[in-house]
Amino acid sequence: MELVGLLVGFVAGAGAAWFFLQRLCDRRVEETEARVERDLAHARAQARDADQAHNETKERLIALQARLGELEAELERARAEVIAARNRIASQAQLERELAEARATIARLESELAPSPALAAAAVATAGASPATAAAVAPATVSAAADELRRLDAKLAMLPAGSSARALLLKQRSELVARLDQPPVAHRDMPPLVPEAQVPAAVERAPAAATASPAPAAPRPADDLKLIKGIGPVLERRLHQLGVRTFADLAALTPDRVKQIDEAIEFPGRIERERWIEQAKELLARQRN
Questions:
Q1: pTM
Q2: Where are the domains of the chain?
Q3: Chain segment 123-148, per-residue pLDDT in tens
Q4: Nearest alpha-carbon partner for 244 in 267, 222, 217, 268
């Protein structure tokens, strides 16, 4: 009986111990699961915060990239404006130098150019003279007019086609030719010719031609204006129609003439923007060298 009671007590104790151990294990498992759930919820919250921060950073990065593109575009525009300003400053300096040279040339030509003495004397002698005197002076008048015609032809050969100075000289030449074609008449007042001092300062003196009445000088051969960046076949033909045929014609353009050509070719500002005059000067210098 004692043995049975001992066995029963051992079994009962073992069952109680197992029961308490089982409860303890279950409590620990529950505590562990609760802790894991809390850690998992915290990790999920941190992951959501990290994703949100990542999205915000990505948006800021896209905005910064867009702003960087705008700043680069502004920088390119600023560089273009600086280059254009430098070109304008260089053009202004070149114009000032050309203006100084033109003033010096005008001063020199004003001191050198004067009305033809022979032609002036012949005109004075013919006006109001008797028939015999007029007949005697007529050969001298014709000779003086022929000399004047030779000088005009020599000057015309130096001027580009379409220039205002060339038009003035052509008008003066036509008047001379008309006077040479008329027979001498006594007591006819010979209209005074345009003095040489009124010829534009761009005209320089040249040696007289060998013949008495040479034909008008043939136009100079045209240069290949397509070598200038920005000028194609169509613009080259249009420039030829406007009287611009050589690099020298382009290099000698004045601001007023540039404005007229811009309006004619319907590309305002293109000559200055593409630096046609500077390119023409470079090609002309290369051609002379």
A1: 0.28
A2: 31-112, 113-198, 220-288
A3: 444 444 444 444 444 455 556 666 77
A4: 222
